[in-house]
């Protein structure tokens, strides 16, 4: 594992007008454009994204990988596995009464509890009366609603 602080650049440096695409299943030499997402243009490949956008999209993944690698080197393999399991358990259940998609417990485990995102303020659940009751939602999740 690497101790990379900044994500690697994954932007393509060359653009080819003849892309390597999979062929049709029956004839290997004929490219099947409809199965591969439609015909692509060179302009879309060149003007699609800025190289910095690729790095910014992978920023949090790289920081988490660096943190887990440091924990693995310091405490052994059990610590990153335990933290990964905690994040998965917290991400599994998101009650609607507590904000739905925004999960405070997961934010604390990922060290994002001090930052405010757009989704934290505008959750899309303005009408609280339409939300299910917390206990009935928990009973449904735990299969306790008889």
From TrEMBL:
**Bias-annotated ranges (Low complexity):** 8-19
Q: Give the source's domain of life in one word.
A: Eukaryota
Q: Using the UniProt annotation, give all residue ranges assigned to the region (Disordered).
A: 1-50
Which keywords are on file for this protein?
Chaperone, Proteasome
Q: Which GO terms describe its cellular component?
A: cytoplasm; nucleus; proteasome complex
- InterPro entries cross-referenced by the UniProt entry: Ump1 (IPR008012)
Q: Name one GO biological process term.
A: proteasome assembly
Which family does the record claim for this protein? Belongs to the POMP/UMP1 family.
Tell me what this protein is called: Similar to Proteasome maturation factor UMP1 acc. no. P38293
Give the species.
Pyronema omphalodes (strain CBS 100304) (Pyronema confluens)
């Amino acid at each position: 594992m690497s101790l990379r602080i900044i994500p690697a650049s994954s932007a393509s440096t060359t653009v080819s007008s003849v892309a390597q695409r999979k062929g049709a299943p029956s004839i290997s030499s004929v490219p099947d454009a409809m199965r591969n997402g439609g015909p692509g243009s060179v302009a879309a490949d060149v003007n699609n994204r800025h190289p910095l956008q690729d790095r910014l999209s992978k920023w949090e993944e790289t920081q988490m990988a660096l943190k887990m690698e440091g924990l693995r080197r310091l405490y052994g393999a059990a610590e990153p596995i335990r933290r990964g399991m905690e994040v998965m358990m917290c991400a599994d259940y998101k009650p609607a009464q507590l904000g739905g998609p925004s999960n405070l417990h997961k934010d604390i485990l990922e060290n994002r509890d001090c930052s405010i995102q757009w989704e934290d303020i505008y959750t899309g659940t303005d009408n609280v009366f339409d939300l299910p009751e917390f206990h009935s939602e928990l009973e449904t999740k735990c299969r306790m609603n008889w």
